[in-house]
Design brief:
Blueprint: E1 2-4, E2 31-32, E3 42-48, E4 59-64, E5 69-74, E6 80-82, E7 89-96, E8 103-109, E9 112-114, E10 117-118, H1 125-131, H2 134-139, H3 146-158, H4 165-169, H5 175-185, H6 201-218, E11 240-246, E12 279-284, E13 290-294, E14 303-306, E15 313-316, E16 331-333, E17 339-344, E18 348-353, E19 360-364, E20 378-380, E21 386-389, E22 393-398, E23 403-408, E24 422-427, E25 433-437, E26 442-446, E27 453-457, H7 462-467, H8 470-479, E28 494-500, E29 505-510, E30 515-520, E31 526-530, E32 543-544, E33 549-554, E34 559-564, E35 569-574, E36 586-590, E37 593-600, E38 605-611, H9 614-624
Parallel strand pairs: 3-9, 3-10
Antiparallel strand pairs: 1-19, 2-9, 3-6, 4-5, 4-7, 5-11, 7-8, 11-38, 12-13, 13-14, 14-15, 16-17, 17-18, 18-19, 20-21, 21-22, 22-23, 24-25, 25-26, 26-27, 28-29, 29-30, 30-31, 32-33, 33-34, 34-35, 36-37, 37-38
Length: 625
């Protein structure tokens, strides 16, 4: 085991300057409200429909000219919106809702300002479809027959392993075109690596019927596609405030532009390409600054830190053997405020940075022990240990002794070359570890005292098994699950996990079944809790807060869901950006408030969600008046 302290850190780079908020909006004339120069700058206004009706739940965003920070709020039931206090300056402001054109305007905000919007409906069908988030574009696929449902499930499971369905289904192709798309996709794994001799057997088996199905829905005619919608935010969801911080595109990747021509802020521009996007996992430190893992190959940074007040970006680089920066996938903040992450150099190790001192340390597992490779996720336990996933189990690192302990999955491999990589991982208050094998629908427990591992199997989706043809059953019986990118139609897909250590409850995001798994660490009893829309909601992670709410990003829907486990109720928070693909949320709970931090892996931003109380809203309205 090697420890390297005081690693050199690359020089400061600024990704932005002032605090503010993103903008672009149209219609209505803004006017500056006279007030004392010492008053906070308050931006308010109202949104109406073409007939003059007020519109609740409309997303309104503001961004100061020259800033990298966008702030977004929502209109209330009266159609009015209220921003938190903003720094004075020139702003771009815009308002948008599903089915309507984006309204844009520029306004100078001194001590206060008002900007009203009158939205216009989108009349063009293809423009309506391009505006849709992943869940609604997936919902629009035909499902009238059992065969349609079979193909829709294949799209759900195997065509969204690495991107939201809105990215590909916003386009139209004839049957030959969809054949070409599937031919390419079946040879590209979830990391974007082209492997012509290791294709996805599920897509290969269903290729002909899948191409026909997609051409029926998203072909030259597209007549089988149904445009659907969902309720706009109201109540608690409409009290949300988002701050989004732009992350510069990969400076070491050859791109048409250094800045994205479409960063997802205007929904009518459709879901953006992921080309050049750096962030994967993110977490706030105890001062509220935002750290993220740089998952794309580059020479500049392994992790980045964004100043939450200014938006300024500082890169931290660990040198890899390739000459690039070490690639990072998983990143967390531990109980002491230290940022931990994996580092591929190309062997996988563990690293940390102390936000106070900016000291970077790297720890490599000894020879003969599994390295920290694969879709690495991390967590800590109450004994101070750091847990990290490997391709066949997990490692626990003791920061005091700087020693690794290895734990193997009960079944790290399956038939036909199946790989049961560790995906999500948590540590409990007794120092034990738990991880998910997404490909195998399995949760594994590692006992710290005995070193023993046990596993819990999740049940298959019976409805999906019932729809399978005899040929399907024969194929899947022979093929079986192979890896995380080739699930069966009836897979649960346990992805990333979170733990309520005080109550001994693990929460598991089952991405393919649209459920949360609740695991009692004392009894290992598992309960499955359905999301509001089990087919279109694909949870990526499940992180509980101190009040026993579980925050879960629906990574293909541009939403964050909150499950109140005591009341058994859901709140769906719409994200202000289209094409986010959020992986895992991290929480900063202080002063009675909760901040939820997460990265937009596709559209290259870090976002912070805070929910204003009803008292906060009343104060904002009074201040605006």
């Amino acid at each position: 085991m090697t420890s390297i302290a005081n690693m050199p850190i690359v020089a400061n780079r600024t990704a932005g300057i002032a605090l503010s908020l993103l903008t672009s909006v149209a219609f209505s004339v803004a006017h500056v409200v006279a007030a004392s120069a010492t008053d906070p700058a308050i931006l308010t206004g109202a949104v109406t429909a073409p007939g003059g009706e007020t519109m609740g739940g409309v997303t309104v965003s503001a961004k100061a000219v020259g800033s990298t920070i966008t702030t977004s709020v929502f209109t209330d039931e009266t159609g009015a919106y209220y921003f938190p206090a903003l720094p004075p300056g020139q702003y771009r402001v815009w308002a948008q809702a599903l089915g309507f054109e984006t309204a844009k305007h520029e306004t100078e905000l001194k001590t206060g300002g008002r900007q009203d919007f009158a939205l216009r409906k989108i009349e063009d069908t293809e423009k309506l479809i391009r505006q849709l988030p992943g869940d609604l574009i997936l919902a629009g696929l035909p499902d009238e027959t059992a065969d349609d449902m079979r193909m829709k499930r294949i799209v759900h499971n195997n065509c969204t392993s690495c991107h939201t369905p809105s990215y590909i289904l916003q386009h139209r192709f004839d049957e030959a075109g969809w054949h070409a798309i599937i031919e390419a996709m079946k040879n590209i794994n979830v990391y974007g690596v082209y492997r012509p001799n290791q294709h996805n057997p599920v897509l290969d088996f269903h290729q002909d019927e899948l191409a026909k199905y997609l051409a029926k829905a998203r072909g030259p005619n597209g007549g089988a596609f149904k445009i659907t919608s969902r309720p706009r935010p109201s109540g608690e969801a409409a009290r949300a405030v988002f701050k989004e911080y732009d992350v510069p595109l990969n400076p070491d990747q050859e791109l048409p532009s250094a800045t994205p021509p479409n960063n997802g802020s205007d929904w009518t521009k459709a879901t953006t390409s992921r080309a050049g996007s750096l962030p994967h996992d993110s977490a706030p430190d105890l001062d509220g600054n935002l750290w993220f893992a740089a998952v794309s190959p580059n020479k500049t940074m392994s992790v980045g830190r964004i100043d939450a007040n200014t938006g300024a970006l500082k890169p931290f680089k660990i040198d890899a053997a390739t000459g690039n920066a070490a690639i990072v996938h998983g990143l967390i903040r531990d109980a002491a405020g230290v940022i931990w992450f994996n580092a591929w150099m190309p062997k996988g190790g563990l690293a940390k940075v102390d936000p106070k001192t900016e000291k970077v340390s790297i720890y490599m597992p000894p020879e003969g022990m599994s390295h920290i490779d694969g879709p690495v996720t991390l967590d800590y336990d109450s004994k101070g240990g750091i847990w990290a996933g490997t391709n066949d189990g997990a490692l626990r690192f003791d920061p005091v002794t700087e020693k690794f302990t290895e734990f193997k999955s009960v079944n790290p491999k399956g038939p036909n070359g199946a790989v049961g990589q560790t995906y999500g991982i948590v540590g409990d208050r007794d120092g034990n570890g738990y991880w998910s094998q997404m490909a195998f629908d399995t949760i594994v427990k590692a006992d710290l005292k005995t070193g023993a591992t046990t596993e819990m199997k999740l049940p298959p989706l019976k409805d999906e098994m019932a729809r399978a043809t005899a040929a399907d059953l024969k194929f899947y019986d022979t093929y079986g699950p192979r890896d995380i990118g080739t699930p069966l139609p009836w897979s649960q897909g346990p992805r990333r996990m979170g733990i309520d250590r005080e109550h001994g409850i693990i929460w598991v995001a089952n991405s393919w079944s649209g459920t949360l798994g609740r695991v009692d660490t004392r009894t290992l009893q598992t309960t499955l809790i359905p999301l509001p829309n089990t087919f279109t909601d694909q949870p990526y992670a499940a992180i509980p807060d101190k009040n026993q709410n579980v925050w879960t990003p629906l990574w293909t829907t541009d939403q964050i869901a909150k499950y109140d486990s005591k009341a058994g109720t859901w709140t769906m928070f719409d994200l202000p950006t289209r094409g986010t693909e959020v992986r895992i949320p991290a929480l900063l709970e202080r002063g009675g408030e909760t901040e939820v931090v997460f990265a937009y892996a596709r559209s290259s931003k870090i976002a912070v969600l805070k929910v204003r109380s009803e008292a906060d809203m009343a104060a904002a309205k009074a201040q605006a008046r």
